[in-house]
Amino acid sequence: MAKKGVVVQVLLVVAITVCCLGATEAQSQSLGFECRSDSVQCRALIDYTAPNNTNYRAIQKLFNVKHLIDIVGANSLPANTNGTDPVNKGRTIRIPFGCKCRNSTGLSSNRRPVYTVQSGDTLSHIAEEVFSRLVTWQQIQAANNLTDPNKIDVGQEFWIPLPCSCDQVNDTTVVHYGHVVASGSTVQQIAQQYGTTQDTLLNLNNMTDPNKLQAGQILDVPLKACGLNVKNESLDFHLLVADTTELYTANGCVKCRCDTANNLTVQCEPSQAKPANWSTCPTMQCQTSDSVQLFIGNATDSCPRTTCAYAGYAANQTIFTTLVTDSTCPASGASRITLPSSFLSIFFASIAVYQYFSCLFD
Ligand SMILES: *[C@@H]1O[C@H](CO)[C@@H](O)[C@H](O)[C@H]1NC(C)=O
Ligand SMILES: *[C@@H]1O[C@H](CO)[C@@H](O)[C@H](O)[C@H]1NC(C)=O
Ligand SMILES: *[C@@H]1O[C@H](CO)[C@@H](O)[C@H](O)[C@H]1NC(C)=O
Ligand SMILES: *[C@@H]1O[C@H](CO)[C@@H](O)[C@H](O)[C@H]1NC(C)=O
Ligand SMILES: *[C@@H]1O[C@H](CO)[C@@H](O)[C@H](O)[C@H]1NC(C)=O
Ligand SMILES: *[C@@H]1O[C@H](CO)[C@@H](O)[C@H](O)[C@H]1NC(C)=O
Ligand SMILES: *[C@@H]1O[C@H](CO)[C@@H](O)[C@H](O)[C@H]1NC(C)=O
Ligand SMILES: *[C@@H]1O[C@H](CO)[C@@H](O)[C@H](O)[C@H]1NC(C)=O
Ligand SMILES: *[C@@H]1O[C@H](CO)[C@@H](O)[C@H](O)[C@H]1NC(C)=O
Ligand SMILES: *[C@@H]1O[C@H](CO)[C@@H](O)[C@H](O)[C@H]1NC(C)=O
Ligand SMILES: *[C@@H]1O[C@H](CO)[C@@H](O)[C@H](O)[C@H]1NC(C)=O
Asked: What letter does residue 261 receive in the DSSP assignment?
């Protein structure tokens, strides 16, 4: 009896090990992140797992993210998230950062983030604990030309070279997201979650066998992205909105999402966040011929339907708006808006006619 019990237990353990674990525990390592478009710069994302109880402000500082609202958007957090709000140990937060291709490798640009050595630090502590294995100590050593990795001084500043890429994937512009693989997840499941395919992930990450996925591995995940439909003189002309994230622009006054289900159409609305560089957010209203008041994100219910869309911003506290008319009138869409008499469909369909009524608010 006792012997049989032991055998059954051993078999169970073997069975669990063989069939139930997707990714297995291992050192973090990135295999992909080729970046062939040399000297090109872009925005990228990477997962950071808090090594202990901390808050958003501390994470923002650690990664030298300019505005807290950029972290809020990357993680689709509530717009009123406060820097002092806690981030518990083990929680994963997406960090937005600038990326540059150099010598076929993508690394965080402008020699950022910069980490200042504290008393008691070692390179491996900085790599493994402080930055949760997003880099190895060898990568920090190489990026900073350190001849002796054991000789580091308090106050010395090190560039932490985060892995990233600016390359197109299958001729499509994407936002590269360094996803830290959780224990038990599979390539197929990650592909599904982020709107890509297993083959794409395997190719991009130089993997041949999906079963070789390891927990802690930094997987290069290409997120679909929308370009902003803004005037070419707008300060955010080059920005992309990645799927599953939100982007705060116009100094935080406008919040945009990418609707991947509708031909990658971008949707923006007033953010309700405190502006980063302006005392208040300017009016975000379109000029209409009739008495109807349309703010960014609002649409009329008449056909052709007219939507008030975001069209960019300028440093002088100006937000541009434009009226976009959709001549094809879908039977019904996801309803939400809002004009005086009835509920209307929000503008989810593709833009057929794109009209500029010069709607500048001074
Ligand atoms: C964040 O919370 C602190 C107190 O926890 C408060 O003093 C501060 O005003 C808040 N900041 C914002 C922007 O709400
Ligand atoms: C570029 O990469 C190659 C091989 O990875 C290496 O031999 C070469 O030294 C690198 N060049 C520079 C300028 O870093
Ligand atoms: C939090 O983690 C950092 C990095 O590992 C460590 O230096 C620091 O002492 C920790 N702080 C607390 C309060 O545990
Ligand atoms: C490291 O050395 C290389 C080649 O000698 C040089 O191009 C680079 O600027 C150096 N980086 C730093 C941080 O000193
Ligand atoms: C491009 O798409 C094809 C099929 O749609 C896929 O098999 C291939 O892996 C993709 N390439 C990359 C680099 O992901
Ligand atoms: C991809 O993997 C092959 C074989 O393991 C290796 O020779 C090659 O250098 C890798 N390429 C990249 C970009 O890591
Ligand atoms: C911006 O667009 C306008 C027309 O819409 C064009 O005349 C102008 O040359 C463009 N400017 C730049 C810098 O591309
Ligand atoms: C999606 O957008 C592209 C480019 O704007 C356009 O050519 C295409 O017809 C659109 N497809 C659909 C289904 O609306
Ligand atoms: C804030 O706006 C002014 C112009 O209004 C600009 O010169 C400055 O660079 C901006 N600062 C930041 C941090 O964006
Ligand atoms: C228009 O958009 C604003 C801002 O997003 C929203 O508060 C409002 O409910 C919408 N509808 C109307 C009729 O203003
Ligand atoms: C603000 O700047 C934009 C573009 O730079 C310009 O078109 C607009 O007239 C300016 N508005 C004011 C009030 O200066």
From this structure: G
How do strand 214-215 and strand 24-25 relate by DSSP bridges? Answer: parallel
DSSP 8-class letter at 70: H
Asked if the model's pLDDT at residue 267 lies above 80, the reply is yes
CA atoms of 341 and 345, how far apart (whole Å)? 13
- What pLDDT is recorded for position 16? 40
For residues 99 and 43, is the Cβ–Cβ distance under 8 A?
yes
The reply to whether ligand 4 has any atom less than 6 angstroms from the CB of 332 is no
> How far apart (Å, rounded) are the C-alpha atoms in residues 201 and 241?
20
Verify whether ligand 3 is closer than 6 Å to residue 235 (CB atom): no
Q: Up-side HSE of residue 177: CA atoms within 13 Å toward CB?
A: 27
Give residues (CB < 6 A) around ligand 10.
Answer: 269-270, 295, 297-298, 337-339
Residues 194-231: tens digit of each pLDDT: 999 999 999 999 999 999 999 999 999 999 999 999 99
What mean pLDDT is predicted for residues 110-126?
A: 96
As a whole number of angstroms, the distance between CA 220 and CA 234 comes to 30
Nearest-CA neighbor of 247 among 67, 59, 74? 74
Q: Is 277 in the pocket of ligand 9 (CB under 6 A)?
A: yes
Burial state string for 19-53 with b = 16 or more CB within 10 A and e = fewer than 16: eeebbbeeebebbbbebeeeeeebbbbbbbbbeee
Beta partners for 248? 255
Which ligand sits nearest to residue 102's alpha carbon? Answer: 2
Measured from the alpha carbon of residue 50, the closest ligand is 3
Q: How many residues does the structure list for the chain?
A: 362
CA of 223 to the centre of ligand 8 (A): 19
Distance CA 305, CA 361 (A): 23
Q: How far is CA 251 from CA 133, 169, 222, 281, in A?
A: 32, 30, 26, 8
Residue 86 Cα to ligand 6 midpoint, Å, equals 40
Could you tell me if the CB of 130 is within 6 A of ligand 11?
A: no
Cα→Cα distances 52→29, 85, 89, 211, Å? 21, 14, 4, 30
Residues with CB under 6 A from ligand 1: 82, 84
